[in-house]
Design goal:
With 522 residues, this protein is an alpha+beta fold. It folds into 3 domains: 183 residues, Beta-Lactamase (2-Layer Sandwich); 66 residues, no CATH class; 152 residues, 2-Layer Sandwich (Heat Shock Protein 90). 53% of the residues lie in helices and 19% in strands. It contains 11 helices and 16 strands. Helix 6 packs antiparallel against helix 7 and helix 9 runs antiparallel to helix 11. The longest helix has 73 residues. It is rod-shaped, with a radius of gyration of 52 Å. The mean pLDDT is 87. Bound molecules: adenosine-5'-diphosphate (ADP). Adenosine-5'-diphosphate binds next to helix 9 and helix 11.
């Protein structure tokens, strides 16, 4: 049998599956790419926020430096008392600057220190700042060089000698070419609390929290209460060495959001592919079924023609011989009549089968149900069939189940079913010409078994033998004559009875067909 679907499978794979797989792979890779892009955009967005915080701190410090410079310039023109008053007012306004210091560039003469609360300053502040400036002289030199190139820079210095405080230094812009150092001592925690917190609060959105940590990673300020949040992005704060500003996402992190999205999309693509493959599988299965059916239909026509031709030619041959009066002995004559009778019976059975099949196909079958005893029905069939059975040298044993309830059946249809099964049992038997028919009761079913010891049926074929036109094409079975309609008719009659047909078979050992009728429909 030709199998055209073998050619179709690779074609369908090339036309549908390959482009889909390529498209899916492309989708998956571009998905990953776009997820990465989203992550990149989001990260750079967070970096911009962190940058704006640092810019804000820078602006604050630069403004303070500019203001201080103005005081100094004014004091040089006016008097020292006014300068000190200005500075003190400025220190109160700034809230986080503890003191202001000015010094000559080489830190030789005494420092000028102005503070509102000199008692709160770290001990030996004057000496300590002197030392710190000397230790950091290289930074001062850089400031001088930068000033020469027109750059006004500000430097933050951290040192244990001034505790937690930060010393901010810059060079004053004076009319004369002279260089003088000016600086302020800032308390970072006060700066964050009084000067920076407003900015931090203003940029905090619904999704994240902005927090500041010190050098020990202790959170000293936070715009929200989310202890479960994880740090998404972090940056050092300009002019406050050791302090970091952190952006924390409330609940989920970006990467987990991105991962979740990717997984969701991947599942979606896989599901689409799965449905496509299932669809393709169904198409192929149907296609295969249709081609097999059309092949079987072609075979059916050949089989039926052959089935009809053989009895017809036998009838033709023997009737001609008889008509011509060539047979002299009475015994021979009877034998020929018997052959003609058998073959015409066979012919009418084939025609019956085809007609029955047609009316089943067209849904024209009419059943009339009567209450029957299965055992007497079998006995009648076996009696009517005994001549044929004995003639074929078969032995049939009937093991009738006792006390079976009567069942509701279409008698003629069930007789046809039994004859079909007996016919098959004889047709597909070899040397062991034995058939056992059993009836009995199993739960709500009255059953009837027809068992032979013939060719048997492979398990792959057992699933197909009830399909229309299906005939086993391998082994000895293929040499037997048939239409492939018998079991289809049997199955359809059993369905009309809301019964079942089951087969147990083992190749080379024989088969057992079981019919089950509901006993509660009596
Ligand atoms: P067919 O006219 O070919 O006998 P059926 O529909 O009656 O058509 O049976 C379908 C196929 O099932 C047969 O071709 C045969 O191979 C297999 N079959 C049916 N009954 C038996 C049996 N008792 N033993 C072995 N094979 C069987």
């Amino acid at each position: 049998m030709k199998k055209p679907y073998r050619k179709i499978i690779p074609l369908l794979i090339i036309i549908i599956l390959v482009p889909t797989i390529i498209l899916s792979l492309y989708q998956i890779s571009s998905l990953n790419q776009s997820e990465k892009n989203i992550e990149k955009v989001y990260t750079s967005e967070l970096n911009t926020i962190l940058g704006s915080i640092n810019e804000y701190v820078g602006d604050y410090i630069t403004d303070w430096a500019r203001e201080t410079n103005l005081f100094v310039l004014e004091s040089r023109n006016g008097n020292d008392v006014t300068f000190k008053e200005y500075v003190k007012k400025f220190l109160i306004q700034s809230r986080s600057i503890n003191m202001l210091v000015t010094s000559d560039i080489n830190v030789t003469s005494d420092l000028q220190i102005i503070s509102n609360n000199p008692d709160t300053l770290p001990i030996n502040i004057r000496e300590n700042i002197k030392n710190i400036l000397k230790i950091n002289y290289s930074k001062i030199k850089t400031l001088i060089e930068q000033k020469r190139s027109g750059i006004r820079n500000i430097v933050a210095i951290k040192n244990n000698l001034i505790g937690n405080n930060v010393l901010i230094i810059f060079l004053l812009q004076l009319p004369e070419e002279k260089n003088e150092i000016c600086g302020f001592l800032i308390n970072p925690e006060n700066f964050i609390k009084w000067n920076l917190s407003w900015k931090l609060k203003s940029i905090t959105g619904n999704e994240f929290v902005v927090a500041v940590s010190d050098q020990n990673n202790t959170r000293i300020f936070s715009t929200g209460e989310d202890s479960s949040a994880t740090i998404e992005q972090q940056a050092n704060i300009n002019f406050l060495p050791g302090y970091t500003v952190n952006i924390l996402l409330k609940g989920v992190t970006i990467s987990s959001l991105v991962k979740e999205r990717s997984i969701r999309n991947l599942i979606l693509i896989s599901l689409i592919n799965l449905f496509l493959i299932i669809g393709l599988w169904f198409v192929l299965k149907n296609f295969r079924k249709e081609t097999e059916l059309s092949n079987q239909q072609t075979n059916f026509v050949a089989n039926v023609s052959h089935e009809l031709r053989t009895p017809l030619s036998l009838i033709n041959l023997f009737s001609e011989t008889l008509v011509m009066g060539r047979v002299k002995e009475r015994e021979k004559e009877l034998e020929y009549f018997k052959i003609i009778n058998d073959e015409s019976n066979r012919l009418s059975r084939i025609v019956e089968k085809v007609l029955r099949f047609r009316s089943i196909e067209e849904n024209k079958e009419k059943y009339s149900f009567t209450t029957e005893d299965i055992n007497s029905l079998i006995e009648n069939v076996l009696q009517a069939y005994s001549y044929q059975i004995e003639n074929s040298n078969f032995k049939i044993r009937f093991e009738a189940g006792a006390n079976l309830p009567e069942i509701q059946i279409d008698k003629e249809a069930v007789i046809e079913v039994v004859i079909n099964l007996l016919d098959n049992a004889m047709k597909y038997s070899n040397d062991r010409k034995e058939i056992i028919v059993t009836t009995g009761l199993e739960r709500e079913f009255v059953y009837l078994k027809v068992k032979d010891f013939g060719l048997g049926i492979s398990s792959a074929n057992q699933r197909k033998i009830f399909e229309k036109f299906y005939r086993v094409q391998d082994g000895l079975a293929k040499d037997k004559r048939g239409t492939g309609l018998g079991l289809t008719i049997v199955k359809s009659i059993m369905d009309a009875h809301q019964g079942r047909i089951e087969v147990e078979s083992s190749e080379g050992k024989g088969s057992c067909f079981t019919l089950k009728f509901r006993s509660n429909n009596v």
